[in-house]
Amino acid sequence: MVEESNLNSNKPKTKATRPKAVYLWTEADVQKWLRRHCSDYYMLYGELFHEHDITGRALVRINDNTLLRMGITAREHRDAIWREILKLRLKTDIVEIRDLERRHGYLHYDL
Question: What is the pTM of this model?
């Protein structure tokens, strides 16, 4: 029998629960993101991201040249991964802007 106190300790996720900020992501979080958003390239480059200790803070700073220096030489592959990184940056920026608006009481307009 499960005690009632144990049931309450596992807080259910609510809509208000926010994902961890990208700049706080660990290497494992980046691997999970890469597997989910760049699934066609995960088997090829997941180990490279691991070898270069790519955390969330590093991920959002990566550019095309960084991907090339890491060893991703195929232009099509770099473009696809870069596109996903740009989407992540944009999403992160939007969240930060909305947080600022909420904190300072600005009106929110959808883009």
Answer: 0.76
